[in-house]
Specification:
Elements (H helix, E strand, L loop, with lengths): L7 E2 L7 E2 L1 H6 L2 E3 L11 H9 L3 E3 L17 H13 L6 E4 L1 E3 L2 E2 L13 H7 L2 H18 L3 E2 L26 H16 L6 E5 L26 H7 L9 E4 L17 H12 L4 E4 L5 H7 L1 H11 L4 E3 L9 H14 L5 H15 L12
Parallel strand pairs: 3-4, 3-12, 4-5, 5-8, 9-10, 10-11
Antiparallel strand pairs: 1-2, 6-7
InterPro entries: GH, Glyco_hydro_3_N, Glyco_hydro_3_N_sf, NagZ_Beta-hexosaminidase
Pfam family, one: Glyco_hydro_3
Keywords: Glycosidase, Hydrolase
Length: about 375
């Protein structure tokens, strides 16, 4: 048993002995306010004192109706990422949603290259064109010091009127082979520059009729098993590329789990994704501030349920709502959940091991990729 008042001894370098609080900090990716930071900024305290695992950058701050947030131009973003990493003792994930098309945080009006949507690339179905666009995105991120792109979307475009996928052109195609072909190119182009990628949204968001940002999303009657195909093929050890992480969608499917949405479901994460499909990379939640989750479970309970179910990293964007003290408050709550056995002790250590393994591949690491 772990002594929660002492330290956890895990054979992981470069920190063979770490306090539980520091391990928990590594399991979070947080958003924060502003285009710059100084030593008094709350995110600096999270990085320095709570060993925060990563940050996520947004161009807008929706919670305060502000048109500008972390991104105002190339030079500013590069300076910001350098400042963030300067406060970290463990390499920091600097994440962004830069899918292309309508879903992008780096926009032409703030000095960044134009990007094509996944739908447009899939329609052209030209591998060279996809490689050019994916390579341009990866080069931009690498120049800025952004090492984690929360893309590609591998949802099938089953319902073109889907408000959060099909309607805004986030899917390569309704055909699994087309999705796999272009997602593979996307991942390969990012790997050339040691930019991490993330498949999303497991187990498939393409058939949904509602937006999980806004409320409960039930795919029980619309989801098709073929939606798993891109995930299975891109995860397989024999695939041309192996992706380091996968994002869970806030999707309820009573045929998979009659009680919980995928983000909070042990059945979906452990039984389906880990055991049946064989994924051993980092499992990341979609933003837990989205109303599909918070309206029913609340943020603290959602975090604990997600970690207990098998999620390795939790995203709290601090964009839909803003709480600069979130990490300071959630770490004691997780420690209490471990003491009360609501989160198994081994889950925290498993998650940390996977996060640490993924960080070996970060841009600037001395360690070469093995795949």
């Amino acid at each position: 048993m772990l002594d929660l008042q002492a330290t956890i001894h895990v054979q992981i370098n470069p920190h063979p002995t770490m306090k539980l609080e520091s391990i928990i900090g590594q399991l979070f990716i947080l958003g924060f306010n502003g285009p710059s930071i100084d030593p008094t900024h709350r995110i600096v305290a999270d990085i320095r004192d709570r060993n925060l695992g990563g940050v996520i950058l947004f161009d807008k701050l929706l919670a305060k109706n502000e048109a500008r947030n972390n991104i105002t131009g190339p030079a500013q973003v590069k300076k910001l990422t350098i400042s963030l990493q300067g406060h970290a003792t463990t390499p920091l994930l600097v994440a962004i949603d830069q899918e292309g098309g309508m879903v992008k945080r780096l926009k032409a009006e703030t000095g960044f290259p134009e990007t094509a949507s996944a739908s447009d690339l899939g329609d052209h179905d030209d591998p060279t064109l996809t490689a050019i666009h994916a390579g341009c995105t990866a080069q931009t991120l690498n120049h800025l010091g952004i090492n984690f792109n929360l893309a590609p979307v591998v949802d099938l475009n089953i319902f073109p009127g889907n408000p959060v996928i099909g309607k805004i052109k986030r899917s390569f195609s309704d055909d699994p082979e087309t999705v796999i072909r272009h997602a593979t190119i996307w991942i390969q182009e990012h790997k050339k520059l040691n930019i991490l990628s993330c498949l999303k949204h497991f187990p498939g968001h393409g058939s949904s009729r509602t937006d999980s940002h806004l409320g409960f999303t039930d795919i029980s009657t619309s989801w098709q098993e073929k939606e798993l195909t891109p995930f299975k093929r891109l995860i397989a050890p024999a695939s041309q590329t192996r992706v380091e992480s996968l994002m869970l969608g806030h999707l309820f499917n009573r045929n998979l789990d009659p009680q919980y949405p995928a983000t909070l479901s042990r059945i979906v994460i452990q039984d389906l994704l880990r055991t049946q499909i064989g994924f051993n990379g980092v499992v990341i939640t979609d933003d837990l501030q989205m109303k599909a989750i918070t309206d029913k479970y609340g943020l603290e309970e959602s975090v604990c349920l997600a970690l207990a179910a098998g999620a390795d990293m939790v995203i709290v964007g601090n964009n839909l709502e803003y709480d600069p003290d979130f990490l300071k408050k959630i770490i004691p709550a997780i420690i209490s959940a471990v003491k009360e056995k609501r989160i198994p002790e081994r889950r925290i250590c498993e998650a940390w091991q996977r996060v640490k393994n993924m960080k070996k591949y970060l841009s600037g690491s001395n360690r070469k990729r093995s795949d």
